[in-house]
């Protein structure tokens, strides 16, 4: 399975990415071993994710989410939030 996800950073900013191992990737971000952006914006928490059968679909969705305004990203999160970050 492949995932597109959104993290909320410690400063309130949002980071969007994709992975095929969501739990492992979120733990990497939290440990400061994720993306360069999230390393400097800790702590992070998982606030949204979607599942896709292929890497290409997940990457395409990541790109589409990154094109959204912050307001639209917040609406997306509000419509399908992760109630508690399990990682």
In short:
By secondary structure, the chain is of the alpha+beta class. The protein is 40% helix and 26% strand.
Explain what you see.
With 87 residues, the protein is an alpha+beta fold. It has a single domain (2-79), classed as 3-Layer(aba) Sandwich (GIY-YIG endonuclease). Helix content is 40%, strand content 26%. The chain has 4 helices and 3 strands. It has helices spanning 22-30, 36-39, 55-66, 70-79, and strands at residues 2-9, 14-19, 44-52. It has a 3-stranded antiparallel β-sheet with strand order 2-1-3, sandwiched between helices. Strand 1 and strand 2 (14-19) form a beta hairpin. The chain is globular. The model has no long low-confidence stretch (mean pLDDT 95).
